[in-house]
């Protein structure tokens, strides 16, 4: 059975909205058209704003095989396309081993199961012609979360898509995520905008590491929190201060200063909570790809710790 475009996007998660692209492909977008237009001030940011971060296919089925056609509209760093069945990873395809366009075919064991396919986090992947040789139904998720951040939130450094901290946390808690993480980004209130039709139950904010040495970091953080809370005055917000880092560009004193500024600004708003990023990932290089971005192990630990924080705050 081949699903129609409308049926296909019912099985897609992680997008604020879905577009039909040339050739009939579907793609999930994290941003409004107006936000993407604003990001054109930087080609680097605009391209990464269209990557497939935290986009998934999810469905319950009794099928023994399914497939879909894909096309890479843009490559960033090359990570993976991962499949989980009933919460267990069973297949991972490296993007570097896939053609620019083609078909991915998956075999499944008999019986009812829940399937999740993670699309690449650091490339823009379009899909179409999903074919399933059995019954299927969509997966419903109750808790909606807006995630804002930089390359760590987008997932760079794990090189295993399912192991980004956002994906780990979302998988553990069953969250419906819109991941607005962009590699290299920072506190910028101008990108914030209403998302008509998407009302998050809470927001996770993880910015700062890219501007820890900026002279205007206090002003930027202050403006960002003021704008964010004006858009979501009663929505719980969890702000994560920057993670520990030890690459050659790091100034720990200024990173610590920025964390203090974030805590100070967050304290102005009753709907904002703060967690110390230094406690989210062990402060040793083994958990990092490059002294800045958590690797797959670091992403797992980070995601588990954020999930526990959300439970402790009774947000889920």
Fold and architecture overview:
By secondary structure, the protein is α/β, with parallel strands linked by helices. The chain has two domains: 5-138, Sandwich (Jelly Rolls); 143-312, SGNH hydrolase (Rossmann fold). The chain contains eight helices and 16 strands. It starts with a helix and ends with a helix.
Strand percent estimate: 25-35%
Uncertain segments? none
Total separate domains? 2
> What shape does the CA trace take?
globular
Question: What is the CATH first-level class name of the largest domain?
Answer: Alpha Beta
Query: Helix- and strand-based class?
Result: alpha/beta
* Overall pLDDT: 97
The level of helicity is 10-25%
Alpha-carbon distance between the two ends:
36 Å
What is the third-level CATH name, the topology of the largest domain?
A: Rossmann fold
Could you state the order of secondary-structure elements as H and E?
HEEEHHEEEEEEEEEHHEEHEHEH
- CATH superfamily of the largest domain, called what? SGNH hydrolase
Number of beta strands: 16
**Can you tell me the CATH architecture of the largest domain?**
3-Layer(aba) Sandwich
Rg of Cα set: 19 Å
Helical element count? 8
């Amino acid at each position: 059975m081949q699903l129609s475009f409308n049926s296909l996007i019912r099985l897609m998660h992680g997008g604020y909205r879905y577009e039909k692209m040339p050739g009939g492909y579907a793609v999930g977008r994290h941003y409004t058209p107006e936000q993407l237009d604003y990001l054109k001030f930087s080609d680097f940011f605009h391209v990464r704003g269209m990557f497939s971060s935290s986009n998934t296919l999810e469905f319950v089925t009794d099928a023994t095989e399914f497939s879909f056609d894909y096309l890479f509209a843009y490559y960033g760093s090359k990570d993976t396309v991962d499949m989980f069945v009933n919460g267990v990873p069973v297949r991972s395809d490296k993007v570097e081993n896939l053609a620019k366009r083609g078909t991915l075919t998956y075999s499944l064991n008999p019986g009812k199961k829940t399937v999740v396919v993670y699309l690449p986090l650091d490339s823009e992947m379009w899909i179409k012609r999903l074919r399933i040789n059995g019954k299927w139904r969509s997966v419903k998720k109750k808790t909606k979360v807006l995630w804002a951040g930089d390359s760590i939130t987008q997932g760079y450094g794990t090189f295993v898509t399912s192991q980004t901290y956002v994906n780990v946390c979302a998988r553990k808690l069953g969250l419906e995520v819109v991941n607005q993480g962009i590699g290299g980004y920072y506190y910028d209130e101008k990108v914030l905008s209403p998302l008509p039709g998407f009302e998050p139950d809470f927001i996770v904010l993880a910015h700062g590491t890219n501007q820890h040495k900026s002279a205007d970091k206090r002003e930027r953080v202050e403006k960002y929190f003021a704008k964010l809370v004006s858009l979501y005055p009663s929505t719980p917000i969890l702000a994560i201060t920057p993670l520990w880092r030890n690459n050659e560009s790091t100034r720990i004193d200024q990173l610590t200063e920025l964390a203090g500024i974030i805590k100070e600004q967050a304290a102005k708003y009753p709907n904002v909570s703060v967690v110390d990023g230094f406690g989210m990932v062990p402060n040793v290089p083994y958990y990092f790809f490059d002294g800045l971005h958590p690797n797959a192990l670091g992403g797992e630990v980070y995601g588990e710790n954020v999930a526990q924080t959300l439970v402790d705050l009774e947000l889920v």
